[in-house]
Design a protein that fits this description.
- The protein is of the alpha+beta class and 189 residues long.
- The chain has one domain (13-150).
- The protein is built from 5 helices and 7 strands, in the order ββαββββααβαα.
- The strands form 3 sheets. Strands 1-2-7 form a 3-stranded antiparallel sheet. Strands 3-4 form a two-stranded antiparallel ribbon. A two-stranded antiparallel sheet has the order 5-6.
- β1 (3-7) and β2 form a beta hairpin.
- The radius of gyration is 19 Å and the shape is globular.
- The protein binds iron/sulfur cluster (SF4) (3 copies).
- The site of one iron/sulfur cluster has 13 residues, from α1 and α3.
Length: 189
Amino acid sequence: MTGEAVSNGLKKRIIKEIKVNLDKCIGCRACEMACSGFHAEPKFSSTNPARSRIRVIVEDRKDVYLPIRAGDYSSAECAGRNTYTINGKDYSQCSFCTVSCPSRDLFKEPDSDLPLKCDMCESVPPLAEPMCVQVCCCDALTYVEREEVVDVKEVRRDEIDLGLESLISKHGIEKVAKIVAQIARTSKG
Ligand code: SF4
Ligand code: SF4
Ligand code: SF4
């Protein structure tokens, strides 16, 4: 996330989005390979869809493919299991859900079981477009940026949230909580 001051307490920031056109997705899963390769260490040293932050939910019998990017982690399944009917085809709520939750194996790092979350391929230097968009042959994924003016406090809160999420995904919540508690004790003096 980038920001530029516009006036007292307000800041411009760029909102990055990926639009998904389900009608164009052919289920090739190139996006999964590209995402996992980009996030491998070292970069592109391996590809493994299980480590991808985008997964293509395949509904074979309906000829439907749903590319879903990983969102937030939840320690519990949600209460609702709704079914949606679109153009005469039934979809479960989980098919569209971006959450890493206990009901399924998606969006969990296979070695550690830690949740995976799409980070829009943030890197230095920045990519012109996220990897999954770059490799999508059919324009099912398209990248858009828009500007928004927001309260500086909100931007800082978002930046702290992102930083914490990345630390938790790398080291686990218990280790991060322990370090934060140690820092809090030290700063109290
Ligand atoms: S994956 Fe399914 S059960 Fe889990 S939060 Fe999403 S909709 Fe609820
Ligand atoms: S934007 Fe980057 S991190 Fe997110 S799903 Fe696409 S390739 Fe993966
Ligand atoms: S790369 Fe594009 S067409 Fe292929 S599965 Fe992913 S979203 Fe669909």
